[in-house]
Amino acid sequence: MMSLDGSVVGRWSEPRPFDVTPASVAAYVDAVGGPSPVYAVVPAMDLVLAVACAAAPAELRARVVHGQQDIFFHRPLPLGETITVQAAVLGLHGKRSGTVATIGVRTYDVHGTLLNEQYVTEFYRGVPTDLRLGTPSPTLPADAPTGPPLRTATSPLPVDLPRRYADASGDHNPIHLDDEFARSAGLPGVIVHGLASLAVAGHTVLPPGAQPARLSCRFTRPVAPGDTLTTRVWMDGPGYRFESVDRAGATVLGAGLVELARPSVI
Fold first, then answer.
1. pTM to 2 decimals?
2. Are 170 and 263 in the same domain?
3. Fewer beta carbons below 10 Å: N end or C end of the chain?
């Protein structure tokens, strides 16, 4: 079994430019069914893959599942401008069932102002290690929301969503596009990108005009294209908790958390 390289932990990449074009934003909006703050992941998509591959041989990528996403928003991405992104493997933490890799992302505008910070958690299934390096992702709520939800909505996940999301986001992992490859990786077939599910759920979670300061969730179960996503939202102080289930009632997005940049009207 090939191993992961702990020497890369904490090594930030060189800044990489990205043009936030109207066409790129429009393609993302079209793929996920409306404007979404999750577009913030797009500028760093290729860079996250590059730093992850520096830690793990390409042969291990088939074993990777996206475990968690945490985005802290400081300022909106400037439409029509060039921004820069940096990424690094922040931590590698092994256990008997596999190894967790935490990847950090920082996004800056042309003046060097920090626009957002992101934490991408990847889990290498069946790659156990004794690594205890760096820092893990920020914690998410361990308890489930209680009481009746504030709102609930069900959204379809179109059969062509993985292809459209791959083209709009730059994430062409074959587990989302190739049935045979997905099955060889131990999946029942192609699955919807976790971030696509998060973007779709976000339409229910965020009221119109609300600006998140933080948007986070745990990807608890794969969901197939053609399924549905039912999202339940609870108030949580000045923000929200949420979770999403598939048609069978299995939790797909868990420990969902939103902190708002400013109060919103429900």
1. 0.94
2. yes
3. N
